[in-house]
Amino acid sequence: MNNDSRFLGRRAMLGTISATVLAATAARAQDAEPETPAAEPAQTGRPGEYLITGAHLLTMDDKLGEIASGAVHVRDGAIVAVGADLQAPGAQRIEAHGAVVMPGFVDTHWHLWATLARGLGAKGGFDKAMAALAPKFGPQDNALGVRLSLAEAAHAGITTVCNFAHNTRGPEAARAEWQAMRDSGLRGRFYYGHPNELPKDKLMDLPGLEALAKEIKGDGLVSLGVAARGPDRSLAEIWRREWAAARDLNLPISTHVAYSKAVAQSGAIKAMAEGSFLGPDVQLIHLTQASDDDLRRVADGGSPVGLCPWTEMQVGFGLPPVARLQKQGLPIGLGLDNLALAGNADVFAMMKLTADLAAASAGEQGTLTERQVLEWATIGGARSIGMEEQIGSLTPGKRADLIMVRMDAVNTTPAPRPDITLVRAAQPANISLVMIEGRIHKRGGRLVGHDTRKLLRDAGGAFSRLQKEAGI
Question: Strand 402-406 vs strand 99-103: parallel, antiparallel, or unpaired?
Fold first, then answer.
């Protein structure tokens, strides 16, 4: 046998071995658990009592400011005390040396159901990509998207989530999403919505909204709002009836507006201002194409604004007018918007992008400081959704929604200015502790109370089934 023949023989034999190994590996992978570790069991009973010590406190409270080496006392779901030297006999101590402790992030706009189709909307835009898939969602698919989103939110230090539910195909879907939020233990608001493609001359499900509003007493972690259409998405008699119904039920409203030149030039904001449809109860999302006159109308009307910079740029809504919004002094919160587009829940990256957009549009570095954008992600976001009395700062008497971020990691050391390091360098993986209403949701970098193995299996299976049903 010549050298070429021997070489070909060995090559064939190696190919056979490789094929066998790959086949065996694939077979094992089908039965194997995902590498993600199972979470710790959820806390049960009353929230515990904790004393978090040795932390650099970013309280986001104007009176308390920063405390270089401080402690936070938590009891029965509330912040009892914040200071440099606290004693709490009997409390469970949590050592936070080398970490920042701060209020949890407040996400003010997120379509939670769509996380089940993560990345799909990145090709061809959300509406086009999801047109076939969205109608195939059943109520439990909606709920699964919510559960997946909220597990990632807890991992990322987002303690309050505003769910703009725009694939609500009946009261069962709405109730499934709301219940999934309740079960998660995260704080949030469920904005009762409608199918994204609902015709302009059709009303949203107002009877379902009213029924759920009567059931919710307002004493839980999840409140109710309305994901409403504005002048650009429905006929005048339709959107006005929907908004009137929301206000009759005393529910806050969230709506997309001025996200394209055509919508901005249609006079939607002017119509809302002239009809007294602006106010602290009406959150406006995007505003990327709003004129200066419209921004003044919004400021005069007192409506807060939700910015979603990742998706606003990706889908071509335009550059978020961060500097112009800041100049008007509008209440501003940040939102992930849509993980079918944005990809993952990373508030640190979103804050960095927001600060850089302000500098780019104004032509001057430092137009929006890291401290200011950190406020938008915490107390500013809470203020924009009317929850500043409950959350958003480490203030005694407020609810115990807080996070611990390690500043002694390779990507966060040194950190002479913790606020700058958080915005410029930190990642969700640096978050070692997440507490909501005094209950621990993440500890030692691992989720608590979220069965991630089952969640990932369920999400993968559901997406595969939905793809087949939609013919994608």
Answer: antiparallel
CB 16 within 8 A of CB 8: no
Is cis: bond before 414, omega within 30 of 0?
Answer: yes
CA distance 86 to 120: 50
pTM score, whole prediction: 0.90
Specify which residues 337 forms β-bridges with: 110
Instruction: State how far the Cα of 472 lies from the Cα of 467, in Å rounded to an integer.
Output: 5
Same fold? 49-103+394-447, 105-384: no
pLDDT band at 122 (very low <50, low <70, confident <90, very high): low
- Give the mean pLDDT of 81-91: 94
- How would you classify residue 286: left for phi > 0, otherwise alpha for psi between -120 and 50, otherwise beta? left
Confidence (pLDDT) at 409: 97
- pLDDT tens track for 53-64: 999 999 999 999
Q: What is the pLDDT of residues 156-175, one digit of tens each?
A: 999 999 999 999 999 999 99
pLDDT digits (tens, 9 = 90+) for 7-26: 334 434 333 333 333 333 33
Is the distance from CB of 159 to CB of 401 less than 8 angstroms? yes
Spans of all domains in the chain: 49-103+394-447, 105-384
Select from 77, 73, 79 the least CA-distant residue to 45. Answer: 77
For 401, other C-beta atoms within 10 Å of its C-beta total 32
At position 71, the amino acid (one-letter code) is: A
Task: Name the token pair of 386.
Answer: 């009317």
Rounded Cα–Cα distance for residues 16 and 283 (Å):
62
Q: Quote the tokens at residue 107.
A: 């996400």
Q: Which helix (H) or strand (E) holds 344?
A: none
Residue found by looking up tokens 């919508």 in the block = 263
Check if CATH label 1.10.10.10 holds for domain 49-103+394-447: no
Q: Is the dihedral of CA 388, 350, 301, 233 positive or negative?
A: negative
Query: What single DSSP character describes residue 289?
Result: T
> From the CA atom positions of the chain, what is the Rg in Å?
24
More reliable by pLDDT, 256 or 27: 256
* pLDDT reading at 381 higher than 50: yes
DSSP for 204-243, written as a single string: --HHHHHHHHHH--S-SSEEEEEE---TTTS-HHHHHHHH
Cβ atoms of residues 287 and 333 within 8 Å: no
CATH number of 105-384: 3.20.20.140
**How confident is the model at residue 217, as a pLDDT?**
73
The CA–CA distances, whole Å, from 63 to 58, 265, 350 equal: 12, 43, 27
DSSP 398: S
Model confidence at 33: pLDDT above 50: no
Give the H/E segment covering residue 295: helix 292-301
**How far apart, in whole angstroms, are the C-alpha atoms of residue 171 and residue 175?**
6
49, containing H or E segment: strand 49-58
